[in-house]
Amino acid sequence: MVIKNLKTNEYSELEGEAYLELFNQTIKVYIDQDSDIEYAELCITDLNNLNEELIVSLCEASIRYCNEFLDDIGEEMIKFSKPKDVLAHITLNTICIPNPKNKAEAVIDLELNCTWEEEHGMEWIIRNGEVRYVGPYNGINPYGNCDIGEDWNYVEVNNV
């Protein structure tokens, strides 16, 4: 099993822990009460098998978020040699596994902490192998339009 230490929490959700290779870190996993372990395992496995192009897209969107935020608050923007260098400024918080609309389609909804925006952090949503949202944590519905094209979603529209 990919997810370890499973238990039911006070909200009747399953929660556990999973190791994520991209961050070389264990993360807390919350599984919607209407979801199941098999689907959660699919999502974690999918996350651990992201292709390089998708990882770079996540990193580039994170850099856009980082530098626009820093510029907005009058701080100096960070220059990154490579897109993946931004990962040093990001730590995992939790992954939420939603009630699936399609059990064959992995949906990844990550809540992350980042050094540039400590109050709101960051959220990444990946659905069906596409980056759908990168921006401040807003609890975006991973099955909705993910605020594509909005100023606070740093995914390039032509990538969706």
From TrEMBL:
InterPro entries on file: DUF6985 (IPR054254)
Domain DUF6985, residue spans: 6-139
**Pfam families linked to this entry:** DUF6985 (PF22481)
Q: Which domain of life is it from?
A: Bacteria
The protein here is known as DUF6985 domain-containing protein
